[in-house]
Structure formats: structure tokens, C-alpha cells
Amino acid sequence: MRKFIYLIIAVLGNGLGSAMMYESTIGMSAWGSAAANVSAISDAITPGLAFMIVSIVFFIIAIIIHKKVILYEIFFSLVFLVSFSTIMDMFIVMLPDMSSWSFSMRLLVNIIGMLVLLFSISIHLYINTAVHPMDVFLRVLQQDVFHNVIIGTYVAYGCAFLVAVIFGLLSGGITNIGIGTVLTIVLGGSIMGLYDRYVIRYL
């Protein structure tokens, strides 16, 4: 029961944090920026739907590379993906339009969103249930392809940014790559380490 509650917190936090960073328009996580730029090519593609599309494509790539199919893990990963993406879209609709806000206010929203997102990821990694498809792709690169955590991580980021750049150019301009993206990449590991040390270990 406790693990289920933590999973709900992880889903809600992932959705809220991503939505806050998206609405601030000054940068998201690597995969968030990829989804934002995919969604920019058509009004029919919401950021959450774009996240699902991108995640499923790289999830399939990870399964092909890993050469191992565990149906129940795939099912739960997809359930998490659909839940998170739907909730992300819901929060985007609920949050106010920040286009007229000052940069400092949008930066504050972005940082709070990042902290919420990283906390949710920390909880999700702690319970290790219904793993996000992008984390599956990351793990496959780290363990099966490069056998190196650092190289695998940066290649995964590179794939995300490549998607963001390609679709950003197709839509007429790259969006949601900025200071929020830099902060997430540079500080993400350290912040999650603090969460693990001072919060997650006491759950």
C-alpha cells in the first residue's frame, strides 16, 4: 500500500513539475524539451501526447537493444507513462499563462518545478516500480551498450536534444531549451543525492 501511495506521488509530481517547467518557457529536462518541440509541430499534439510518442519510440529501441521482453514490466511502464503524460497535460491546462510574467518570476516557477520533478523521480527510483520508458532506455545505454554510466547518460541526453532540435527546426523555432535545461543537467544529480540522503532514506 505504501509503495502504491509513493507511486501516485511520483506520477503527480512528475506531471506537475514538468508542467511548471513547460509553462515557464525557459527550459525543461532533456526529454521534456524533446517532447515540447515535438508538440510544437501541431496544435493537435499536446506536450503530454508528445511525451508518450517520444517515450514509446525510445522504449522500443531499448527493448530491441536489450533483446529481452518482460511483458509485465512493459505494461507497468506504459501505465506510468500514460498516467504521467495525461496529468502533465491536465496541469498545463490548469496553470496560468506566464508569457507576460517577468523573467525572475518564470525562473522561480521553473526552479520550483525542477525541484518537484527531481523529488518525484527520486521517489520513483526508490520504489523501482513501473519504470519510466526513458529510464529503461537510459539503463540500456548505460549497462548494455556503453557499460559506462556517464557515457550512457550523455548519449541519452544527446538523443533527447537531437529530437528537440530536429522538431524545433521543423516547427520554426526550438523551444524550451534554456536555463531550466542547464540547471536540470548540472544540478539534477546533486539535488537528487540530497533528496536520497535527507528525505528518501526515511520513507
From TrEMBL:
Domain of life from the UniProt record: Bacteria
Record's protein name: Uncharacterized protein
Pfam families for the chain: DUF6198 (PF19700)
Native organism taxonomy: Bacteria, Bacillati, Mycoplasmatota, Mollicutes, Candidatus Izemoplasmatales
Record has Transmembrane helix as a keyword: yes
Keywords, alphabetical: Membrane, Transmembrane, Transmembrane helix
Chain ranges passing through the membrane: 44-65, 74-95, 107-127, 148-171, 177-195
